Amino acid sequence: MEALHKRLSSHSVLIAEDDPSTLKWLVRVLKIYFKEVQGASNAMDALELFTAAPVDIVIADIQMPEVDGLHFLQKISLISPHTLRIIMTAFNSNLYLNRAVESGVHLYLKKPIDIDELLVAISSYLPDSPSMTTISNLGEGFYYDALKKTVYKKETPVKLTKKELLLLELFLKNPHSIVGLEMIEQNIYEEPATADAIRMVVVGLRKKIYSDLVENLKGLGYRLNIS
């Protein structure tokens, strides 16, 4: 269980469930295992949360008012195809199963949910490397999709240079640490680099995302300034 917890702990989850008691229970339990867990009582609120701050895993009930879980997950797949999509249902009919297959969900789980089964199933679908989450929320409406190696402002791609991308990934792998000039030079340059050359890459990253993204610690290096 310790290995499972370690594998899950760097990932974020969004749950869309219209039954208040089920939603509260799932959020409470999954917070034990995951870095961040959000809940919404309908698909529209969940979609708004996801658009503002994409997550690695989305779990949805199949029957919800206005927009059902499968239509909601189809929309999620258009925004972020690599997000893990899980549908929950109290019904076990071929009609729902066929719809789930056609919608391209990764997991189809029967209610009542068995938490151990859910956690193991999620773990089997996650990327092998635990060093960086698939979707990283950068704040201010920006996020980074590690599988696509692309920064997005909501749904619009932000074009980064190769060095800007490598620097961002270096920061994300060391989210709470000071990243020194020597470490940056070793990871994003193939030749010796001056402090001014590194500073220009940092400036470019700030301009294309937002100015407060990277904190300058005089004499020490830089640090990613996100929660």
What would you say about this model in short?
By secondary structure, the protein is α/β, with parallel strands linked by helices. The chain is built from nine helices and eleven strands.
Give a structural overview.
With 227 residues, the protein is α/β, with parallel strands linked by helices. The chain has two domains: 124 residues, Response regulator (Rossmann fold); 83 residues, Orthogonal Bundle (Arc Repressor Mutant, subunit A), CATH 1.10.10.10. 41% of the residues lie in helices and 22% in strands. It is built from nine helices and eleven strands. The strands form three sheets. A five-stranded parallel sheet has the order 2-1-3-4-5, with helices on both faces. Helix 3 packs parallel to helix 4 and helix 7 crosses helix 9.
